[in-house]
Here is the input.
Amino acid sequence: MLRKKEEEPTEIKSILSEDLKIDGNIFAEGKIRIDGEVNGNINGEFVILGESSRVKGDINTQNLVVMGTVEGNIKTRFLELKAGSKVVGDISSEKLVVEPGASIRGNLNVGIFLQEQSTDSSSEE
Here is the structure.
């Protein structure tokens, strides 16, 4: 029996253009695309960071696609780092796809290790 693929938003609800610079946090529902610069944290369901994007802040999402630059920690269920992307910060993700040419400097907690980390912190309480 085939399992139904998890439903993800297909329509991009908001686009932050390449010429836009935001100083502050972003909270987004649905799928958004950022091509500009963000100095602040990003929280959302599905975030696409275009090739010209630059983020200085932490990102917490369900799904994240990075083609630009991130300076901050990433926490997500699914992360895809495209060729040419750069991440400086720690990454925690259930699933991770890294294309050749992507750059990462930081700690990785991926897959089963992320689940073990959650269990360890729960047992300490």
